[in-house]
Write a structure and sequence with these properties.
This protein is α/β, with parallel strands linked by helices and 332 residues long. It is built from 13 helices and 8 strands. The chain has a domain of 221 residues: Alpha/Beta hydrolase fold, catalytic domain (Rossmann fold, 3-Layer(aba) Sandwich), CATH 3.40.50. α5 packs across α10.
Length: 332
C-alpha cells in the first residue's frame, strides 16, 4: 500500500528548530568550569553515560551516523529526533532504556553527523523510506518499537502505517503532522515558520524560550558552540521551509488521518501541556485517529521538549507502557 505518496513536506512544518538538542546534564556547572570543554566532548560524555556508542553505516548514498546501546538480543527501540535536532536529544531518556532494550538512535539526513547528498529529497515520505532502508541494513526492521518526537513523530506515524506488520509499538511525543485541532501561529500562517530558524546570534536563546517552559542554564561557551552548529545548517532549513509553505497550504488534514487510521499497534502519546509549537489538543485528535492508542499523558508545566525537560519521568512512563506489552523484558 502506497501510504507515503499522499503525504509530503507539510509534516516537517510543526517542528522546525524545535527539537533543540540542549545539553542539560551539566546545567548546574559554572561557565568558567567548562569553558574550555568542547560541546562535542560533552555530548560524547553524555552518550557514554547513557550506555551508547557511536557507529556508522552506508546505505545507498547516505552515510548514517547513529548511537547504539543495550544488548542486541533484546527487543529493539528506534528513537527518532525532530527537525534541527540530533540523536543526542534522546540521550537522557536512553540512559533509562539501555539496561532493558536494544536502543538505536540515528541522526536523520541533513542532521548531526549523517552525511547526505545536497540534492537529497527531504520530504517526510522520503525520510521515512530512507529510515526503513537504514533499519533493514541493521537487520532491526522486524518487531520494532518506534518512538518519535516532533518531526520524528510524523516519521514514526508514516513508518508504522507503511510497515504495520513490522511495528510492535509506537511512542508519539509532541508529534508533528497535519491536524484539524492545531491552532498555533505556525499552523494558521505557515509563513511564520521563517521565524523558527537559527540564522544569527541570539536565535538559539529565543527558540529555547519558545520550545521549553523553563529553559535550563547553559554556559555561554557551550551555548555559542551549539548555536554556531545550528547556524551552519540554516540555509538547508530555509530551503525546506520555502517548500513547506507552498505545500502545507494545500494539504488537508485528512491526508495524514488516512495514514494514522491504518495503524493497529499499541501507541502511547505524550505531550507537554504548554507546547507553543503543537498545541496539546492535537494529542487527543491523534488518539481519536489511532485504533489502539492509550490515553495521552499530558505533562503539566512542560513545553515542546518533554524528553529534555522531564527526561526521567518520560522514561518511566515509556517503560511502564512497554512493560504492559507482550514479550517485553521486565523492568523495575
Amino acid at each position: 500500500m502506497e501510504v507515503l505518496k499522499y503525504l509530503s513536506r507539510p509534516l516537517l512544518a510543526t517542528c522546525i528548530a524545535c527539537s533543540l538538542g540542549v545539553f542539560t546534564q551539566y546545567s548546574s556547572a559554572k561557565a568558567n568550569d567548562i569553558a574550555n570543554i568542547s560541546f562535542a566532548n560533552l555530548l560524547q560524555q553524555e552518550r557514554q553515560w547513557a550506555g551508547l556508542q557511536t557507529k556508522t553505516v552506508k546505505v545507498g548514498d547516505i552515510t548514517w551516523t547513529y548511537s547504539e546501546g543495550g544488548a542486541s538480543n533484546k527487543p529493539t527501540i528506534l528513537l527518532i529526533h525532530g527537525l534541527s535536532g540530533t540523536r543526542d536529544n534522546w540521550n537522557r531518556v536512553a540512559h533509562y532504556l539501555t539496561p532493558y532494550y536494544h536502543v538505536i538512535i540515528p541522526d536523520l539526513p541533513f542532521h548531526g553527523d549523517t552525511q547526505t547528498p545536497q540534492d537529497f529529497d527531504a520530504s517526510v515520505p522520503n525520510l521515512t523510506e530512507k529510515l526503513r532502508r537504514f533499519s533493514e541494513a541493521l537487520a532491526i526492521e522486524k518487531n520494532l518499537h518506534l518512538a518519535g518526537h516532533s518531526l520524528g513523530g510524523a516519521i514514526t506515524t508514516l513508518y508504522a502505517a507503511q510497515y504495520s506488520s513490522d511495528t510492535k509499538s509506537m511512542l508519539l511525543m509532541n508529534a508533528a503532522g497535519i491536524f484539524k485541532t492545531a491552532n498555533t501561529a505556525y499552523f494558521k500562517d505557515p509563513n511564520q515558520l521563517k521565524q523558527l530558524t537559527v540564522s544569527k546570534t541570539g536565535d538559539f536563546n529565543r527558540l529555547m524560550q519558545l520550545a521549553m517552559s523553563n529553559p535550563p542554564f547553559i554556559p555561554s561557551e557551550i551555548l555559542k558552540q551549539q548555536e554556531n552548529m545550528m547556524m551552519a545548517n540554516s540555509k538547508s532549513i530555509d530551503k525546506l521551509i520555502e517548500q513547506i509553505i507552498v505545500i502545507q497550504k494545500a494539504m488537508p488534514p485528512e491526508s495524514f488521518a488516512m495514514a494514522a487510521r491504518i495503524i493497529d499497534c499499541p501507541v502511547q502519546i505524550m505531550w507537554g501541556e504548554q507546547d507553543k509549537i503543537i498545541n496539546k489538543e492535537v494529542s487527543h485528535e491523534l488518539k481519536s485517529l489511532l485504533k489502539n492508542a492509550q490515553e495521552p499523558i499530558i505533562y503539566t508545566g512542560i513545553g515542546h521538549m518533554p524528553l529534555l525537560e522531564l527526561d526521567q519521568v518520560v522514561a518511566k512512563d515509556y517503560l511502564n507502557f512497554l512493560r504492559k506489552l507482550p514479550t517485553t523484558p521486565t523492568t523495575p
